[in-house]
Amino acid sequence: MEITTKFRIDKPANVVFEAIADPEKMGNYWFSSGTDRIEQGKTITWRYDEYNAEGKIKVLEVEENKKIVFSWGEEGQETVVTITLEEADSASTIIKVTESGFQEDHPELVHILVDQKGGWVYMLSCLKAYLENGVHTLRASLIH
After folding, report:
1. Which residues sit opposite 74 in a β-bridge?
2. Phi and psi dihedrals of 50, rounded to 5?
3. Which residues contact 62 (CB under 8 A, 6 or more apart)?
4. Hey, where are the domains in the chain?
5. Can you tell me the distance from the alpha carbon of 111 to that of 43, in angstroms, rounded to the nearest whole number?
6. Which of 71, 85, 110, 63 is nearest to 12 (CA)?
7. Which of 11, 57, 126, 144 could form a disulfide with 15 if both were Cys (CB 3.0 to 4.6 A apart)?
8. Residue 35 and residue 144: Cα distance in Å, rounded?
9. Which of 5, 14, 16, 4 is nearest to 128 (CA)?
C-alpha cells in the first residue's frame, strides 16, 4: 500500500534537491532542524521544535538532483519514502513523493493514509512557496 503526491516547482532540480538535502534550507519550510545533510547510509534525526517532536530517518539511497529514499516511523511500523525529481525543463522540476510499506491490516489504515497524504501535500506546498517566493512562515503552522 502506498500514497503518491506530485507537484511542479518552478526551480531547477538541483535547487529543489538542495532544499531537501540541506538541513538549514529544510528548516525554512519543513522540519525545524536536522542533525546532518541527507547522504546515503546516514541516520539523521529531524526535529520539529514547535511540536516538541523528533524522529530518525535512515537514508537508503541518494542520487544527486534526482532521488532520495529513506525509511522512517516507529519500530515495526516504518515506511519508505521515495522522493524523485524530474526536470520538466531547465527552470522547473516535477517532484514526486511516494510513501510505501503501510500495514494493510492496521485498524486505522484509512486515517493514516489520509493523514500522510495531507502531510505530503502540505510539505510540498511549503517547499514550493519557499523556493518560488521566499516564504518561510508556513512551516509548522498547521494545527493538529
Report:
1. none
2. -60, -30
3. 21, 38, 39, 40, 68, 69
4. 2-133
5. 28
6. 85
7. 11
8. 25
9. 16
* Percent composition of the chain: helix, strand, coil (DSSP 3-state, to 5): 30, 35, 35
The confidence score (pLDDT) of residue 140 equals: 67
- Cα separation of 66 and 18, whole Å? 11
Taking the C-alpha atoms of residue 18 and residue 8, their distance in angstroms, rounded to an integer, is 16
Strand segments, DSSP code E, in 10-78 are 33-34, 43-48, 53-63, 67-72
**Cβ–Cβ under 8 Å, residues 85 and 64:** no
Q: Distance between CA atoms of 139 and 41, rounded to whole angstroms?
A: 27
Q: DSSP assignment, residue 135?
A: -
For the domain 2-133, what is the CATH code? 3.30.530.20
Task: Name the residue type at position 24.
Answer: E
Per-residue pLDDT tens digits for 5-47: 999 999 999 999 999 999 999 999 999 999 999 999 999 999 9
